[in-house]
Amino acid sequence: MTESDLLLSAIVYESIVIIIALIILALILKKYLEKRHQFTLILFVIFTFYLLTLIFSCASKIISFSRAYDYVNDVEAVDPLTIESFIVLRIVDYRSSFVFMALASAFTYVLRVKLFEESYKPLEKWFVIMFGGFTIIYQVFVYIKGNDFIEILSFILIAIYVFAINIPFMSQCRKNYKAVDNPTFKKGFLSLTLMSFFVSQILIFQLLDRFAKIFLVEVYPYGFSPFYYIGMLCALMGYFGAYFGYIRPRSSN
Which pLDDT tens digit goes with each residue over 53-109? Predict the structure, then answer.
């Protein structure tokens, strides 16, 4: 398959994921408006940011597929350093998606504190604010077209931030799942555990897809290995897990 064929298939695939995610997000909003649960509102915000992550990921592929910008499709082309190129290149290189993923992770920390803590711990709070702020600023402003080192560091920063927030959250949810006897609460904590797990897998499978592009270049010269498709599926599984395991049962009580 040509690069255009792969891009088109990825656009169709991500569009389907986005439509399903949008439907689930609408159902989450509906449940919040019915019951006004604070936790449901926080989850709605989290998944809104994850939806924007998916939308800008799809937008990246649409821009590349359209071939509307020479400085995007031509590897040797120089960044013209215009406002347009500033926006377009950050979409194409997934910087915009990483910003929304960082914001989703920050609100995941808020959810964790609301669920399991009496108040914010100063060290954790400042890590979430300062490191998160630095990560977002880096994604937006530290950019040189074609500089692999800067791009690798961009990925490392968002990965550290996502894992540093989601792993403790997943661990706490798993602990509470084992500790409670109420079937509704057990189902809720299990679904939040799975949500955190699947969110973390998105970055892992994205990394594996990049490795496939580097080390299996003859098979996947443009990326889009099975790891890419599994990563997108993990995003959708995170939505399903949170809605059917936590929001829907909780909102019906």
Answer: 999 999 999 999 999 999 998 888 999 999 999 999 999 999 999 999 999 999 999
pTM exceeds 0.85, yes or no: yes
CA gap 182, 185 in Å, rounded: 5
Structure tokens at 165: 């927030």
108-114 — which CB contacts under 8 Å span 24+ positions?
108/46, 108/165, 108/166, 108/169, 108/196, 108/199, 109/165, 109/169, 110/42, 111/39, 111/42, 111/43, 111/46, 111/169, 112/165, 112/168, 112/169, 112/172, 114/38, 114/39, 114/42
Question: What count of other Cβ atoms lies within 10 Å of the Cβ of residue 153?
Answer: 13
Give me Rg for the CA atoms of the chain.
19
Tokens 């994604």, residue located: 139
Compute the distance between CA of residue 172 and CA of residue 61 in angstroms, rounded to an integer: 36
Q: What does the pLDDT read at residue 248? A: 56
DSSP assignment of 112-177: HHHHH-SS--HHHHHIIIIIHHHHHHHHHH---TT-HHHHHHHHHHHHHHHHHHHHHHHHHHHHHH
Q: Which domains does the chain have, with CATH numbers?
A: 3-251 (1.20.1070)
Look up residue 152 and give its two tokens: 């690798």
Contacts with 95 (C-beta within 8 Å, 6 or more apart), sequence order: 89, 139, 140, 143, 154
